[in-house]
Design brief:
The chain has about 450 residues and is an alpha+beta fold. It folds into two domains: about 100 residues, no CATH class; about 220 residues, no CATH class. It is built from 17 helices and ten strands. Helix 4 runs antiparallel to helix 5 and helix 7 runs antiparallel to helix 10. The chain is elongated and about 90 Å long. The relative contact order is 0.16.
Length: about 450
C-alpha cells in the first residue's frame, strides 16, 4: 500500500487529466488519504525543495494541489495559504533512470532503433493507429485556424489549404500568405473567365511586377500580348477589390524545376478554380483514390503549356501529374479537410472516410520512412507512413520518450538498449487550475 511521508495510507482513485500547459501536472485527480477523499491537482518534482525553487508556495494556482509526488522528500511543502500539502515519495529504480538517460543522450534520431524491431507487431500497430489519429487531429486544428481567418467560410478555407500545399514545402508559407491576400468572393465572382482568374492570381503574387523580370528577358516580356492582357485585367481587379499584391521577392526559385515554378503552380490553381470542380461538397463525396485523381487535375491554359515564366518559350510536359504529387495533395489537403469538416459537424461519417482514404493510399517514400524501415518498421499504407512522420517530428525530435509507447516498452524493462548512460528524469508538463475540494 502507498503511504504519504506522514505514514497515512494513500490510494489513487483517479489520475485526473495530464496537463501539458502552465500549472499543476495533473488536473482533477481523485486521491484517498486516510479516510478522506480529495479532488484536486497533483504536482510532480524530483525533490520537495523544487516546490520552492519554482515559487509554487507564492502561486495561488497551486493552492488546489492535493498531493505532491517526489523522488526525494527533503522538505515539507506549503501552498500560498500556508496549508501543508501531503507528499508521496517514490523511488525510481536506477535501471529505469539509466535507460531514460540513454534515450536522452543518444545522438541517433531514433533512440530506440536497436530494439524497436523486436517489439510485438500488436504494440507497433496499436501505436501507429494512435499516432495517425493524433496527426489527423493536429491537421484538423490547422484547418480550423485557416477557417477562423476566413471568417468560417469553408470554401475559402479549402482554397488556402490547397494553395499552401501547391507550394510543396519550399514555397508553402508564401502560397498560404498569397491565398489569404485574395478575397474568396473575388474568385467566385470572376471564375467563369480564366484570363481574369489568372490575372487575379498572378497579380496578387506580385509576378506581374516588372521588377521581378530578368533584364535580359524584359524586352520579350513587355511585348508579350498575354502578359500585357493580364496586367490590364489585374489593374481593373485591383481597383475593384482594393487589392495589394504580396512582394514578388518572397517566392523561391532555387532548386525548383522550371515546370514547378510558382508561375505554373499558380496557373494550375487558376485553371482548377475556373473549372469549378474544386468545391467542398465535391470533396466530401469522394469515396476512392480514383475520385480524387479525377477531381484534381493539374492542367493549365495554352500559354503555360509552352512557358515556365513570362516571355520565355519552353516546351513543358502536360502529362498527368506523378503519383507522388497527387499523393501529397491528397494527404495534405483532401484528407485533412474531410476529417476537419467531420469533426466540425460532430459526425464520424467524414472522419471515418478520411481514415479510409489514408488506408487506401500507398505509403509515402521519403527519408523519414526509409529511416523507419531500417529500424524494422515497414508501413503498409499512407495511414502508417503519416503516423511514422508524426512520431519522428512530435516525439523523436523532441525526445518525448516517456510519452512514446516504444519508449515505454523499453523503460518498463521488457527490452534493453545499447550504449546506456545516466541522466535526470525531466518534469512533466504544466497547465491551468480547477477546484480543490474535500468530499
Amino acid at each position: 500500500m502507498l503511504r504519504t511521508t506522514q505514514s497515512q495510507p494513500l490510494e489513487v482513485i483517479d489520475l485526473g487529466i495530464h496537463n501539458t500547459n502552465a500549472g499543476p501536472d495533473f488536473l482533477n485527480a481523485k486521491i484517498k488519504i486516510g479516510s478522506t477523499i480529495w479532488v484536486g491537482h497533483v504536482e510532480i518534482h524530483v525533490a520537495s525543495s523544487d516546490w520552492y525553487k519554482h515559487q509554487h508556495h507564492h502561486n495561488p494556482a497551486y493552492d488546489m494541489v492535493v498531493l505532491h509526488v517526489v523522488q526525494c522528500a527533503d522538505k515539507e511543502v506549503f501552498n500560498s495559504r500556508g496549508e501543508s500539502i501531503p507528499q508521496l515519495e517514490i523511488s525510481v529504480p536506477s535501471y529505469i533512470l539509466d535507460k531514460y538517460e540513454s534515450f536522452q543522450k543518444n545522438n541517433s534520431l531514433f533512440s530506440c532503433k536497436d530494439v524497436v524491431k523486436n517489439l510485438p507487431r500488436l504494440i507497433v500497430h496499436a501505436w501507429l493507429d494512435a499516432l495517425c489519429c493524433e496527426r489527423l487531429e493536429q491537421r484538423a486544428e490547422q484547418v480550423y485556424e485557416r477557417l477562423r481567418k476566413q471568417e468560417y467560410n469553408w470554401e475559402g478555407c479549402l482554397f488556402v489549404t490547397l494553395a499552401r500545399n501547391f507550394g510543396f514545402g519550399l514555397n508553402g508559407d508564401v502560397f498560404e500568405s498569397w491565398a489569404y491576400s485574395i478575397p474568396f468572393h473575388a474568385i467566385e465572382k470572376h471564375r467563369d473567365n480564366l484570363l481574369q482568374v489568372e490575372a487575379l492570381f498572378l497579380g496578387q503574387a506580385g509576378l506581374l511586377d516588372e521588377r521581378c523580370i530578368a533584364e535580359k528577358n524584359k524586352a520579350a516580356v513587355l511585348s508579350d500580348a498575354y502578359y500585357n492582357g493580364l496586367k490590364r485585367e489585374y489593374a481593373f481587379l485591383a481597383r475593384k477589390f482594393n487589392l495589394n499584391p504580396i512582394p514578388y521577392y518572397y517566392w523561391k526559385f532555387l532548386r525548383i524545376r522550371p515546370a514547378s515554378f510558382p508561375h505554373r503552380r499558380i496557373a494550375q490553381l487558376a485553371y482548377l478554380y475556373h473549372s469549378k470542380e474544386i468545391k467542398l461538397s465535391n470533396l466530401l463525396e469522394m469515396d476512392s483514390i480514383n475520385d480524387i485523381n479525377k477531381l484534381i487535375t493539374l492542367q493549365t491554359s495554352n500559354y503555360w503549356k509552352a512557358h515556365t515564366q513570362f516571355g520565355i518559350s519552353t516546351r513543358v510536359s502536360q502529362s498527368k501529374p506523378t503519383s507522388s504529387t497527387m499523393l501529397l495533395i491528397a494527404l495534405n489537403t483532401v484528407v485533412p479537410i474531410i476529417y476537419a469538416f467531420g469533426k466540425y459537424r460532430l459526425t464520424d461519417l467524414y472522419k471515418d472516410k478520411a481514415y479510409r482514404l489514408l488506408q487506401g493510399y500507398p505509403a509515402e517514400n521519403n527519408s523519414i520512412i526509409r529511416s523507419w524501415e531500417q529500424c524494422g518498421i515497414k508501413p503498409s499504407h499512407a495511414a502508417d507512413s503519416q503516423a511514422l512522420i508524426h512520431l519522428k517530428k512530435e516525439y523523436c525530435e523532441k525526445k518525448k520518450c516517456l510519452q512514446c509507447r516504444f519508449g515505454y516498452e523499453v523503460l518498463r524493462g521488457r527490452f534493453t538498449i545499447v550504449n546506456e548512460s545516466t541522466s535526470q528524469p525531466s518534469n512533466y508538463g504544466k497547465s491551468d487550475i480547477r477546484n480543490r475540494k474535500k468530499i
